[in-house]
Every structure is written in C-alpha cells, then in structure tokens.
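Worked example 3 (structure in, sequence out).
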C-alpha cells in the first residue's frame, strides 16, 4: 500500500480555503484504493507562520505532496480535478 502525505496550507478559514479542503477530501475519497491512501494534514499559516516560512509558502491555499518523492505543489482551490491529479503525481493511466 502506498500512502501519499499531503499538507494543505491555508491562511484562515476563508471561502477559498474551505473549497480547497472540500475538494481535497473529495479527491482523497475518489482515488483511494486498497493500494493508495491519501493522508491530509491541514496547516493554518496564521497559527503556525514558521511552517509557512520553512516551506516557502507564497500563496494559499496550496497543497504539498511530501511523500512519496518527488515533492509536488498545487496552488488554488483544487477545483480542477485533472490538473490536481497530474500536479500531485496521482494520475494513473
């Protein structure tokens, strides 16, 4: 089984952050199989600004795939499903 560790960085509970979280959770359910699991961690950079600096976050919301390598980033509300799948290297043909 492969677990993909995703971090969603948001700046407060904004409509865009809520959409991104909803879209990411929906994507996790859609792509989950016996061999693939998405683990989601939500980080509010207003509460933990040092993490934003460490990860060089310039815009939110942004999701970063930490594991497995390579690391990938997708910025926005994650509403474009196909682009998110490709951007996070989750697209399986």
């Amino acid at each position: 089984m492969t677990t993909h560790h995703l971090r969603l960085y948001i700046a407060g509970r904004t409509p865009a952050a809520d959409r991104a979280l909803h879209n990411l959770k929906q994507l996790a359910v859609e792509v989950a199989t016996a061999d693939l699991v998405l683990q989601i961690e939500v980080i509010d950079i207003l509460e933990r600004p040092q993490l934003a600096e460490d990860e060089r976050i310039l815009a939110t919301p942004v999701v970063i795939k930490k594991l497995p390598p390579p690391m990938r980033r997708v910025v926005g509300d994650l509403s474009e499903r196909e682009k998110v799948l490709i951007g996070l290297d989750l697209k399986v043909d």
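Notes: The mean pLDDT is 92. Residues 10 and 17 are 6 Å apart (CA to CA).
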